[in-house]
């Protein structure tokens, strides 16, 4: 039984404020070979790392990301004095020290903006294999796929579709990124039969990690790469 690889979740949100540069550094320091973070497009066109559509839970701001000015947004505290980082700042910090899973949280131009940033990075020397782009918003992910077919994409699911892993075919996805609540062995088997990798979020408990490993999954998103890394 091989060990599923570790993907730092929102950087490594168990070790530092989620989706901040400090969380990314913490994930790298903990030895995570992959980092996942959430990306949204601000109305000014900039891409930022943020999970919720609102600012209240993770920052000292209030209301919707789409309602705050860029200057005010950059003045917010995202935890421990960290700012809300841009995608470029995150990639500068990572500097190819880990592979990167960008989760598209918004639509309306997010796919195109992310595709442009990643293409620029590849032109600057990043291997295309360093990136995986995923989303629950499958039309936005499909748009990304059309715009930038050279990058791997992962279908995010929080449930079990009627056609099992079938939606991954149309998207020509390389992975199925599944909620731990819906890891049905038949869904895993169908994904594997289609040649997909299977990654599961969010796994912090060593016993759950071992149980999922026995099912043949390929990786887990974890808030604590330090905890599971020692197993
Ligand atoms: O990409 C895996 C995981 O991050 C999806 O759920 O809500 O943590 O972004 P969420
Ligand atoms: Mg996410």
Which labels suit this protein?
alpha/beta; TIM Barrel; single chain; 231 residues; 9 helices; binds SN-glycerol-3-phosphate; binds magnesium ion
Describe this structure in words.
An 8-stranded parallel β-barrel has the order 1-2-4-5-6-7-8-9, surrounded by 5 helices. The protein has 231 residues and is α/β, with parallel strands linked by helices. The chain has 9 helices and 9 strands. The mean pLDDT is 97. It has helices at 21-29, 70-74, 87-94, 110-123, 138-147, 167-170, 185-193, 206-214, 225-229; strands spanning 5-8, 34-41, 47-49, 99-104, 131-135, 152-157, 175-179, 197-201, 219-222. The chain has one domain (5-228): TIM Barrel (Alpha-Beta Barrel). The two termini are 13 Å apart. The structure holds SN-glycerol-3-phosphate (G3P) and magnesium ion (MG).
How widely separated are the two ends?
Answer: 13 Å
> What is the average of the pLDDT values?
97
Shape, principal axes of CA atoms: globular
The main pleated sheet reads as: 8 strands, parallel, barrel
Relevant CATH superfamily? Phosphatidylinositol (PI) phosphodiesterase
Strand order of the largest sheet: 1-2-4-5-6-7-8-9
The arrangement of helices and strands along the chain is EHEEHHEHEHEHEHEHEH
| Broad structural category | alpha/beta
Domain count, please report it. 1
CATH class: Alpha Beta
User: Mind telling me which CATH architecture this is?
Assistant: Alpha-Beta Barrel
Bound molecules: SN-glycerol-3-phosphate, magnesium ion
Helix content range of the residues, please? 25-40%
- Which regions are unreliable across 5 or more consecutive residues at pLDDT < 50? none
**Gyration radius, to the nearest Å?**
17 Å
Continuous helix count: 9
Q: What fraction strand? A: 15-25%
Q: CATH topology, what is it called?
A: TIM Barrel
Tally the beta strands.
9
């Amino acid at each position: 039984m091989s060990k599923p690889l570790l993907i730092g979740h929102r950087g490594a949100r168990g070790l530092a404020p989620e989706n901040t540069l400090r969380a990314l550094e913490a994930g790298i320091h903990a030895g995570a070979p992959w980092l996942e973070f959430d990306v949204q497009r601000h109305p000014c066109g900039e891409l930022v790392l943020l999970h919720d559509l609102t600012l209240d839970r993770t920052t000292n701001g209030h209301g919707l990301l789409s309602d705050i000015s860029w200057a005010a947004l950059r003045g917010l505290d995202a935890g421990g004095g960290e700012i809300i980082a841009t995608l470029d700042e995150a990639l500068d910090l990572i500097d190819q020290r880990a592979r990167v899973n960008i989760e598209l949280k918004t639509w309306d131009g997010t796919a195109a903006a992310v595709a442009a940033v990643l293409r620029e990075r590849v032109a600057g020397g990043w291997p295309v294999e360093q990136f995986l782009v995923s989303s629950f918003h499958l039309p936005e992910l499909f748009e990304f796929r059309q715009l930038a077919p050279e990058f791997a994409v992962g279908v995010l699911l929080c449930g079990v579709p009627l056609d099992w892993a079938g939606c991954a075919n149309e998207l020509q996805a390389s992975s199925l990124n599944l909620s731990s609540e819906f890891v049905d062995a038949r869904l895993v088997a169908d994904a594997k039969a289609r040649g997909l990798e299977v990654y599961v979020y969010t796994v912090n408990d060593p016993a759950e990690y071992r149980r999922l490993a026995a099912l043949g999954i390929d990786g887990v998103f974890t808030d604590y790469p330090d905890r599971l890394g020692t197993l």
